[in-house]
Amino acid sequence: MVGRGLETVIEVLLAAGFEVSLRLHPMTVRHQPRLAQDLVGRYEHGGRFRFDPDVSTTEALLAADVMISEWSGAALEYAFARQRPVIFMDTPAKIHNPQWERIGLPALEAEIREELGRVISPGDLRAVPDAVRSLLAESAAWSERIAAARERAVFNVGRSGEVAAAHVLDTLAEMRSGDG
Fold this sequence. Notes:
Helix content is 52%, strand content 9%.
């Protein structure tokens, strides 16, 4: 949601008194190199807008109470790791594999969005501040709901290293005994 839609979201959030931290997808930065500079020039004067140019840092993600995204995998990572909700802008899905349906399974990103937060139509961007307020008011319930969704969607939460090491040791043992 780049362009006027992004600007509208920033404007309605700032007008509602929220602080906004923006981190652009690296491909957006590549294809629209002036976008960040234009947005900073337009919105930084009020002191509640911040652009985060470094996608390798976690500071902005750790500080955020709610994330707004489209189809980014970062939204799932944020929700699952922080147990905080996401507002998903309901733009067309970004499908990089046109044959994905051959697998016969639903896409997790499409199936789980309503369990992790709210889905808002690009035609209803003025509803974003109310959605943020609602998610913040119900943050404990959302944390529980997101934790439950994470348990269903992610295997071995909190003990993946232990499980992986056990599998490696089992495989080595099978190889040594001639079974593998």
